[in-house]
Amino acid sequence: GFPRTMGQAEALDRICELDLVISLNIPFETLKDRLSARWVHLASGRVYNMDFNPPHVQGIDDLTGEPLVQREDDKPEAVAARLRKYKDAAKPVIELYKSRGILHSFSGTETNKIWPYVYTLLSSKIPPILSDEEN
After folding, report:
1. Is it the case that residue 76 has pLDDT exceeding 80?
2. Cα 66 from Cα 104, distance rounded (Å)
3. 2 with 82: CB under 8 angstroms?
4. Alpha carbon distance 2, 116 (integer Å)
5. Who contacts 46 (Cβ-Cβ below 8 Å, separation ≥6)?
6. pLDDT score at 126
7. Taking every annotated instance into account, which residue ranges of this chain make up the domain Adenylate kinase active site lid (predicted)?
8. Cβ atoms 23, 94 nearer than 8 A
9. In 3-state terms, the chain is what percent helix, strand and coil (to 5)?
10. Domains of the chain from N-terminus onward
11. Taking 70 as the threshold, does the pLDDT of residue 60 lie above it?
12. What is the pLDDT, as a whole number, of residue 72?
């Protein structure tokens, strides 16, 4: 997400005024497992997840047949370190937006269970765009 640090939040404040901030509270282990299951085809940037979007043949890109690789920062130890660092840096940002009364937090482990709540919030804040026929 963005902003991740107070410096980024302060820079964002200089160019716009936020009226809504969404925080997704996903358990550490869920994030670690998902990120650690990510493999990529470097030449194209195609991303696979071995749990919910695996390639047809394990370790092989679907389109080229070339090998997939796991980035160093997606290995379990690196993911755990990245998540700890993010949590420490993001905590004051979360507190800032909470103190402004614009933070909306959602918790869970599955996108399809969290998304309806996020969508309802966004729908209440952003008017729908009507097509020409609906106007």
Report:
1. yes
2. 42
3. no
4. 21
5. 40, 61, 62, 63
6. 85
7. 38-73
8. yes
9. 45, 15, 40
10. 6-97 (3.40.50.300)
11. yes
12. 93
pLDDT of residue 132: 66
Query: Which residue(s) pair with 105 in the sheet?
Result: 23
Taking the CA of residue 25 as centre, how many other CA atoms within 13 Å lie in the half-sphere pointing to its CB? Answer: 7
Distance between CA atoms of residues 122 and 22, nearest Å: 10
Nearest CA-CA partner of 106 in 26, 9, 12: 26
pLDDT value of position 131: 65
**Mean pLDDT, residues 49-67:** 95
Give the mean pLDDT of the chain.
93
Q: Please tell me the distance from the alpha carbon of residue 64 to that of residue 45, in angstroms, as a whole number.
A: 12
Render pLDDT for 102-130 as a digit per residue (tens, 0 to 9): 999 999 999 899 999 999 999 998 877 77
In single-letter form, the type of residue at position 78 comes to: A
Distance (Å) of CA 51 to CA 37, 38, 72: 7, 9, 19
- What gap in Å lies between CA 48 and CA 118, rounded to an integer? 25
Phi, psi of 100 (to 5 degrees): -85, -10
Amino acid identity at 129? I
